[in-house]
């Protein structure tokens, strides 16, 4: 006997079908501090009936304890959940909240307004389709309003709601509203937004949030929720060509080999012709496997395992694409970078660059310019400080598959990681590849490094002397070279002061200049090693990152770090050049050990203590260990 569905089951089935057909909109709130971003989201959740009874009770209690609205509900506490946020009454980290209406589902990112937390705002912008730019009607357009708007445009956001908040505190003055709208339109004209919708509102009271407010009879536009429910966000991910970054080679047994990951853009079907980049091998899709079984087609956003007709070499970091429309491959590109760390970005320093599926080493070779957030004009600069934005050139040690960020966010974005601390220090959006990367190739030569070194009856290497000014580096390096020369070895001594009279005479002593100084010296030293020489390099080289960079320029065992360890007070006593005296007096800026840091080696191959031994004894220690 068949079982008949009752009215309740039909209602549930109808409801579930309706829910499954909803589209999802990701949006963010941004703007200056205390513009009402958290309050707005709290009001949206409250008015949308997306708060459970126990949450509402907790909110009422928290409002009395932490709130800023007297006996009334403080809606900001719904998203400001960190203890530090409640103590200070500010948003610090990004808070994500889900809510739904009858028409659409939403994920909203509440981002902080303080300048020091701009990096967190950038995180929220990276996944948003729309930005709600909050402005306090009493304060108007501020620097942080402009900063957040510019970053939103960098991350490809095309739709903006200009939420002019706290209109109740201006008496709902139309002139105030129109003045702010005019100023913002003038600023945002260069940002490339497709649509800017200004809305006067009061997040605290609820004016023009879910329903049209009687307090603004002069306003005829949509409500906030009305626009959020109806704005059309193009489905570019599905319309673009197929791009599939390989995350994992799936080989559970000898009979199965597939390539797993998430389809970044486009769609793919069994039988389609594909190409594997950067290698360039062509193939045909044999099978597609999803979480619930085999598929005939896979689309953007789906996690799949893709199997090929022919058994070819594919590794994590490769990108499988449609054969008829290939992305570019390069090891050099230009990109916008948002710097997200207290330590400044230093051109010439080596960082880790993480794309969607690959982590490789890269160097920022040039800071083309910084961008003034207020005027959007380009400015000269040598470094990027925390929260600054600049246009840079990158050089990678291996090629990547990419598309410009405005074309493909998945293949056009990357983050920058400090190699020593593993901290994320920046994020970037690729503009274009530098075409010269396609035209410059290593020329094959017949006489190799080993041949040149064998002719000299020696092993080529770099003896890298590091230590404070006055430690005795140059003295000991000179003694070591004399002894090696007497032994019949072929050497060359690169000394810090001598190099600055020629090759590096254009460099100063800022951190950025010091990085470039060592990069150039490292390149010269590595060429000399290739010539079969024993190179002695005596440089303060204050940063571990650059000493490591030079180490990685040569083969394993060819870089020997020698720490000439002399305490600062001993170096100051010697002070044969009078430099420490000038630095202490403030007449010599950026002097290592005084107002510029020195990072001691942690695992130097040779350690020479010049307090306990003479320079000649130190030289003998070095010779006995190389």
Measure the end-to-end span: 91 Å
Strand content: 25-35%
Q: How large, in whole angstroms, is the Cα Rg?
A: 31 Å
Number of helices: 19
Overall form: flat
**Annotated CATH topology of the largest domain:** Rossmann fold
How would you name the CATH homologous superfamily of the largest domain?
Answer: P-loop containing nucleotide triphosphate hydrolases
User: What CATH first level of the largest domain would be assigned?
Assistant: Alpha Beta
How many domains? The number is: 4
Structural class: alpha/beta
Record field, number of beta strands: 28
Mean pLDDT, all residues: 86
Helicity range:
25-40%
Instruction: Indicate the low-confidence ranges by residue numbers.
Output: 1-5, 80-92
Q: What does the largest sheet look like?
A: 8 strands, antiparallel
Q: State the CATH architecture of the largest domain.
A: 3-Layer(aba) Sandwich
Care to describe what's here?
With 626 residues, the chain is an alpha/beta fold. The chain has four domains: 14-230, Rossmann fold, CATH 3.40.50; 237-322, Elongation Factor Tu (Ef-tu), domain 3, CATH 2.40.30; 328-439, Elongation Factor Tu (Ef-tu), domain 3 (Beta Barrel); 449-623, P-loop containing nucleotide triphosphate hydrolases (Rossmann fold, 3-Layer(aba) Sandwich). The protein contains 19 helices and 28 strands. Strands 7, 8, 9, 11, 12, 13, 15 and 16 form an eight-stranded antiparallel sheet that branches. Helix 13 (473-486) packs across helix 19 (615-623) and helix 15 (511-530) packs parallel to helix 16. The longest helix is centred in the C-terminal third of the chain and has 20 residues, at 511-530. The protein is flat and about 95 Å long. The chain starts with 6 loop residues before the first helix and ends with a helix. Mean pLDDT is 86; it is low at 1-5 and 80-92.
């Amino acid at each position: 006997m068949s079982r008949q569905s009752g009215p309740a089951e039909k209602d549930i089935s109808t409801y579930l079908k309706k829910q499954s057909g909803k589209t999802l909109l990701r949006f963010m709130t941004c703007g200056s501090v205390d513009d009402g971003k958290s309050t707005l989201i709290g009001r949206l959740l409250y008015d949308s009936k997306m708060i459970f009874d126990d949450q509402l009770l907790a909110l009422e209690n928290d409002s009395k304890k932490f709130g800023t609205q007297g006996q009334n509900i403080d809606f900001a506490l719904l998203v400001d959940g960190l203890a530090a946020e409640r103590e200070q009454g500010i948003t610090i980290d990004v808070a994500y909240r889900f809510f739904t209406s009858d028409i659409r589902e939403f994920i909203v990112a509440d981002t902080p307004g303080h300048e020091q937390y701009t990096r967190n705002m950038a995180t929220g912008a990276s996944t948003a389709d729309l930005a709600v730019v909050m402005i306090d009607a009493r304060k108007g357009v501020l620097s942080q309003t402009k900063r957040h708007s510019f970053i939103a445009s960098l991350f490809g956001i095309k739709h903006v709601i200009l939420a002019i908040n706290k209109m109740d505190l201006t008496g709902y003055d139309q002139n105030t509203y129109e003045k702010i709208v005019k100023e913002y339109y003038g600023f945002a004209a260069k940002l490339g937004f497709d649509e800017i919708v200004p809305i006067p509102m009061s997040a605290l009271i609820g004016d023009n949030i879910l329903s049209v407010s009687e307090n603004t009879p002069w306003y005829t536009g949509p409500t906030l929720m009305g626009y959020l429910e109806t704005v059309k966000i193009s489905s570019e991910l599905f319309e673009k060509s197929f791009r599939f970054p390989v995350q994992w080679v799936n080989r559970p047994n000898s009979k199965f080999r597939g390539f797993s990951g998430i389809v970044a853009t486009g769609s793919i079907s069994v039988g389609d012709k594909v190409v594997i980049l950067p290698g360039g091998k062509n193939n045909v899709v044999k099978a597609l496997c999803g979480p619930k079984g085999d598929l005939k087609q896979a689309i953007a956003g789906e996690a799949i395992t893709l199997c090929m007709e022919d058994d070819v070499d594919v590794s994590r970091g490769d990108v499988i694409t449609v054969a008829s429309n290939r992305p570019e491959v390069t090891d050099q590109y230009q990109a916008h970078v948002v710097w997200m760390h207290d330590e400044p970005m230093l051109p010439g320093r080596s960082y880790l660059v993480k794309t969607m599926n690959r982590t490789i080493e890269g160097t920022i070779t040039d800071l083309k310019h910084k961008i003034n957030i207020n005027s959007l004009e380009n400015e000269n600069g040598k470094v990027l400080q925390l929260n600054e934005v600049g246009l840079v050139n990158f050089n990678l040690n291996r090629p990547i598959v990419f598309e410009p960020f405005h074309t493909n966010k998945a293949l056009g974005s990357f983050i920058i990681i400090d190699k020593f601390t593993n901290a994320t220090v920046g994020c970037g959006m690729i503009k274009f590849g530098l075409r010269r990367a396609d035209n410059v190739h290593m020329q094959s030569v017949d006489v190799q490094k080993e041949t040149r070194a064998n002719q000299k009856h020696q092993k080529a290497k770099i003896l890298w002397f590091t230590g404070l000014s006055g430690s005795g580096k140059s003295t000991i390096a000179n003694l070591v070279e004399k002894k090696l020369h007497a032994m019949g070895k072929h050497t060359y001594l690169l000394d810090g002061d001598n190099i600055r009279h020629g090759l590096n005479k254009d460099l100063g002593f800022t951190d950025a200049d010091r990085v470039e100084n060592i990069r150039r010296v490292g390149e010269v030293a590595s060429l000399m090693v290739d010539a079969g020489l024993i190179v002695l390099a005596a440089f303060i080289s204050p940063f571990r990152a650059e000493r490591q960079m030079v180490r990685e320029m040569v083969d394993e065992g060819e870089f020997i770090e020698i720490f000439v360890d002399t305490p600062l007070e001993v170096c100051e006593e010697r002070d044969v050049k009078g430099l420490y005296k000038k630095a202490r007096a403030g007449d010599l800026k950026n002097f290592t050990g005084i107002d510029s840091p020195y990072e001691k080696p942690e695992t130097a191959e040779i350690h020479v203590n010049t307090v306990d031994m003479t320079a000649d004894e130190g030289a003998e220690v070095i010779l006995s260990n190389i």
